[in-house]
Amino acid sequence: MSVFHRFANPNRFLKLTNQVLPWVSGLTVISLAVGLYMSFFTSPPDYQQGESVRIMYIHVPSAWMAMFVYTSIAIASVCSLIWRHPLADLAAKASAPIGAGFTFLALATGSLWGKPMWGAWWVWDARLTSVLILFFLYLGHMALMHAFEEQERGNKAAAVLAIVGFVNIPIIKFSVDWWNTLHQPASVMRADGPSIDPSMLWPLMIMGVAFKLFYIVVLLIRIKSELIEAKLRKYRRAVVDKAH
Amino acid sequence: MKAFLNIVSRDLRLALRQKSDLTMAVLFFILTAMLFPFGLGPEPNLLARIAPGIIWVTALLAVLLSLERLFLADYEDGSLEQLILSSTSLEVAVLAKVLAHWLTTGLPLILAAPLIALLFNMDSDAMTILLIAMILGTPSLSLIGAIAATLTLGARRGGVLIPLLVLPLYIPTLIFGVGAIDAAMNSLEAGAVIANARPHLLLLGAILLVSLLITPLAGAAALRQSVE
What we know:
The structure holds two protein chains of two kinds.
Chain A: H1 2-42, H2 56-83, H3 86-118, H4 126-145, H5 151-165, H6 168-178, H7 198-243
Helix pairs in contact in A: 1-7, 2-3, 2-5, 2-7, 3-4, 3-7, 4-5, 4-6
Chain B: H1 2-17, H2 19-40, H3 44-67, H4 69-77, H5 79-85, H6 90-119, H7 124-151, H8 158-186, H9 193-226
Helix pairs in contact in B: 1-6, 2-3, 2-6, 3-6, 3-7, 3-8, 6-7, 6-9, 7-8, 7-9, 8-9
């Protein structure tokens, strides 16, 4: 029976994915188009920073995603270690490169923004440093996952690492409050409501939603291809077994 | 408790018979630290200013070097499997191995640190803080490193993986370890040394407590996976 469950679950998942994927993809394209149009054309330039404030509409959602994806990986890892759910491993494995990509995007856009605003590509500020650590945690997670002969052991080891590395997430979130540094403090997600003007908040929020949807689309496609690959391996083995 | 002491004394005996392993970390620590005056020039004020960073970074690298052998020998000769099969709680065993590792790497580094501090022209107040910071910080290095050492057991290129996994997690210890000494060196009045360094030392203690909690759990989980 357990074998049945194992194969029944991914199949049900594939079916669901195929139904959901076109809708989510459509929503992603729409929200990304609207968000980009608003952030590049309708939102006002900043009174101090001028046009370069538009980097924010890419930078901030990327940074949110960098933390969000890592949190998802940590949750998936907990599910994988406690309930040994086969899809949780796949989700963690599929998420890691996406999260690393978002983290890199946040660092790169931050650097491009920092040059005109702070006069330097990089400063060793608490938030920048902790995001850089996050980037290396992603790299370590991916390297550890692929370091073993059996994929299963790699998945489990990477899951433990992801949970241990999760301590960094609250540090990133609160670094700008704990240490008074160059990076500005939180202006959107704070207890007394956002301190940012609605004309800028709206495009930012839409971009945030678009990035989340984009993550879901890529995640589903990656899990799907992993499942198909596993199936292919099984068929190939069956063919080889028959030939002998 | 008896099992804990047994594991510690076994590892210590093994380490004492392999004296080259024992001295390697300390020698590496002293030799790499000695390279900096050659690279940066022998100006005493400059050396005193950068000494905390150099001592901490080289200590961190010396610990890193010794991490691979923390569990590898036991993994290869099968004693790890015996340990898992035995009635000893694996969490306790991990802590015992880490304590033995700290006694053979962290403690010698602490003893060697004043020597380097002298060579780098550090004053005595800063040296006191350096020692306190290292006593609080080096156990965390062993504890955090043990997680990576257990996770990479049986991995291809395990030795290359360990730095990638461990260095990001070592950065907080490095920041507050150096921060404590810098705060001590920047305090103008003699009485304010401890008060200035105190927040950093407390944070180092917090890191130690958190890693004391996480390492046995994560390490034991990783050890069980490694022999599955």
